[in-house]
Amino acid sequence: MMVDTSRLQTTSKIQIVKADCSGCGTCVVICPKRAIVKGRIFLEWIASACIFCDACIDLCPTGAIFETRIN
Ligand code: SF4
Ligand code: SF4
Predict the structure, then answer these.
(1) Residue to mutate (ligand 2; options 57, 62, 67; most atoms within 8 A of CB)
(2) Mean pLDDT on 6-17
């Protein structure tokens, strides 16, 4: 089944709280779309790649990742 992510991408956002992140790298490894990558300073979330499967949220051991609605 094809999932239309265009609407989700305009209404939701994955946020990673730097202060809560242990740097374990789990989210980078488990994201099925490689939508979380190590940036120069901190992790970066790539909106255009994310399918909002919530795996990163569920598996982050410190609860540093959450999803917010933009509007
Ligand atoms: S919600 Fe899923 S696709 Fe989006 S960044 Fe997290 S693990 Fe990757
Ligand atoms: S899974 Fe959580 S604690 Fe680990 S690197 Fe990602 S945001 Fe940081």
Answers:
(1) 62
(2) 78
